[in-house]
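Field reference: sequence -> structure
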Amino acid sequence: MVYRNKFTRVKTAKGRKKSSTSWLQRQLNDPYVLQAKQEGYRSRAAYKLIEINEKFKILKKGKLVIDLGAAPGGWSQVAVKIVGQNNVLAVDILDMEEISGVKFIQQDFLQENADEIIIKEMNDKKCHIVLSDMAANTSGDAKTDHIRIINILEETLEFSKKILAKDGSFVGKIFQGGAGQDLLKIFKSYFKTVKHFKPKSSRKESAENYVIGLGFKN
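Structure field:
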């Protein structure tokens, strides 16, 4: 069930940019924002992972999950409910408020030896699922932004190759119609199945999409 509320129009306050007013109005009138508050999720992004999991069944009881770029924690909240307590490791360069049953480390996953640090935090076990809802800061230039998000996806994949167990799964964000053919070829060389998926909870005006990799070949 998606909660719906009466449309709220926000007046542009003195000193507030028009873009900020538009963002605030969109937040106040977003049914997923309201639903997240009602159900205790830290962000509306939680419903994107819920939809992804309903479609691809990647989260299962007892599986080990690494949530990259986890803050504020919506995806970790969803994951721990399904895989169970102490099976989710949330990683972010920013600090994140504690979530019951989720282990958090403040770590830049691009840092040298980050994979070793993270595997150690997982009791020297490789994980079954890598989740990443990370996106680069936008510059306003479509081509530049596309290059940035592709770069993050590539870096996330390279990192995942070091920490994923055989037959593991990967979820990563992409924009503008998905990954290009060259990047898809790379994904297909490491995963048995590769899919693009846009959740209904992703805003219609957003170009965001997700790459799903299933069956890591190790």
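Note: Residues 1-40 form one domain.
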